[in-house]
Amino acid sequence: MSNEAGTKPQGAPNAPKKPVGKGLGGMNLSGLLKTPEAAPAANGPLELDMSLIDEDANQPRTPNNPGFSPDSIAEIGATIKTRGVKSPISVRENPDAPGRYLINHGARRFRGSKWAEKTTIPAFIDNDYNEADQVIENLQRNELTAREIADYIGRELAKGLKKGEIAKALGKSNAFVTQHSALLDLPDPIAEAFNTGRINDVTVINELVTAYKKKPQEVTDWLADETQEITRGSVKLLREFLEEGGRDPRTIDAFNGKTDEERENEDDENSDENSEPNS
Hints:
Layout: H1 30-33, E1 46-49, E2 53-54, H2 70-83, E3 89-93, E4 101-105, H3 107-115, E5 120-125, H4 131-140, H5 146-158, H6 163-170, H7 174-181, H8 188-195, H9 202-214, H10 216-224, H11 232-241, H12 260-275
Parallel strand pairs: 2-4, 3-5
Antiparallel strand pairs: 1-5, 3-4
């Protein structure tokens, strides 16, 4: 029995349907043309173009800081060249230059990266950052000189802040702030010894200032001897020689927060423990 005209034979495959609206004119190519932006990993640092980053002109460390010496930068730069920057720097958006950033902390890593000819650097953006935070960061890393600390305290005092407020903001004792603020107005012979690096101990400087107020000429003559080693011990002997009676045992050391009496008692206790026979 023959098939009727126009009737599709059984089992014949369906003719493919002609696509409708699938030509180039009907396609949305925007998804193909748009390049997706690189996104940092969750809570991870950005990889910032170094040409967009500036150092903070008001940072607490001065150009003469030992950490900024050519040798120091070359040392960290050599490490960065071979290993990269392992600890991201912190930056904030520059309010005076949209699209640019100011360094909160990490200036040495930034300079070392320049030395290593890097074009990008890992960084976290932290806009809630101020000068006190910069000082605290560097204090914790022991990267500020006594002069830099004193200069910061001087700027804060000029703003009308009290020493106790500055100490609280830095997480330091009042004695720490008082002793460093004394560096802002030193007698000339002591200032010269400090500025030339003969004295780096803030406590020693304050001891000399106390002695100088009573015997200025004797202290000046003592400092004039460039072979004289200036230590806590030698200054203590000087004050005893000048009949000052030595340092007041109740004086609080700016760095360890203890008096001489407390330190001597600790030394005696340690000595007693070390003298006990082993069981």
